[in-house]
Amino acid sequence: MRPSTPISQSPHTLFLAEYKSIGEVIFRPEVFHQTAYFANAVKCMNIIGQYFDCTREDQIVEIARGFVKRFKGEEVSNNGNGKRSDEFSNADSMVEVRPIEFSDCYEVIDGNHRLAIASARGLETYPVLVKFPAVRTPLQQLLLDYAWCAMRGELEIYQPVESPELGIHWSRIRRCDDRLEMAEKFLQEHRQELPERPTYLDIACSYGWFVRAFTEAGFDAYGVEIDWAAIEIGRRVYGLKPEQVTRSEAVRWLENNQESYDVVSCFSLLHHFILNRASVSAEEMLKMIDRATRKVLFLDMGEEHEEWFKESLAGWNPDRIEQWLKENSTFTRIYRLGTDRDNVPPFADNYARTMFACMR
């Protein structure tokens, strides 16, 4: 995530902000070792063996002191041997950057300290040398490696991800917060039917947006997802733990699963089974999801009103879906909670799917 981090939020700029707040106290070992600057330097040392000319952690503080002196406009002291300290690039050299593809952002090649000083001083512009070729950030590459993007060949983000280089060139597909609002309202109304710390499972969880959201809401939350890139995005962007999302094809996982979860969600998946794109029928898949659900199932699927399904899912409207759920599961109470708000350009003729809550 380093190339996706704005200069204003970089370890270098945060360090200067903290210095302006607490002054020389920042160099006390117990304080300095807690800074993002120190953590970044240690990470660099762990990866390539050094941070500038530092090979030991106790040397990093001298780099930081020189950094602060440059910020204050003071001459950086020499090393006692008559030579200027060389932990920084020459002050007269140009900051070097390169364009980031599919965005109006640039990745810093050399000059993080100089740009941090400029940012901390309140400057909004800084002269740089632009070098080519353009590059992709690791986050961009992960998003493009996700099967949905790879299949469609578009710059698309399936679940919400915020990063500076994901600007107007990238399309946001699913809002997610609309369905979460409906789920939270419903669960609040039925809170007495759930244990104090409920369990949650999201089947085909994609990046894991709902796994994170339910974790933050106090659930013991898990997901199942087949796509490695989606899982990696969830770990990098949402901070999901490795044990929270299992990499597996959904049918095989459900066939071998012996657990049940208080709350289960299955979004935008079952219509693929109705369209015979899977190894089992839609009815068999629903029965497996039924078995995995202890109390509440949240579900939506493709419908006939959508442009891309107007022929292949003809007849599959909310009435038919509700009847189908009743006939092929053990759920006795089925509620319509509303529709998603994803039917905006470039998907204005799609989505707006009905979200159901099923209980027994």
Strand arrangement within the widest β-sheet reads 8-7-6-9-10-12-11
CATH class of the largest domain: Alpha Beta
**Main sheet properties:** 7 strands, mixed
**What Rg, in angstroms, do the CA atoms define?**
26 Å
Proper CATH architecture of the largest domain: 3-Layer(aba) Sandwich
Polypeptide structure, described:
The chain has 360 residues and is of the alpha/beta class. The protein folds into 3 domains: 2-87 and 113-123, no CATH class; 144-172, no CATH class; 177-359, 3-Layer(aba) Sandwich (Rossmann fold), CATH 3.40.50. It is built from 14 helices and 12 strands. The chain has a 7-stranded mixed beta sheet with strand order 8-7-6-9-10-12-11, sandwiched between helices. Strands 2-1-3 form a 3-stranded mixed beta sheet. A two-stranded parallel ribbon has the order 4-5. Helix 1 (11-22) packs antiparallel against helix 3 (36-48), helix 1 (11-22) crosses helix 5 and helix 6 (138-145) packs antiparallel against helix 10. The radius of gyration is 26 Å and the shape is elongated.
Short note summarizing the structure:
With 360 residues, the protein is of the alpha/beta class. It contains 14 helices and 12 strands.
What are the defining features of this structure?
16% strand; alpha/beta; 3 domains; 360 residues; elongated; single chain; 3-stranded mixed sheet; Rossmann fold; 7-stranded mixed sheet; 14 helices
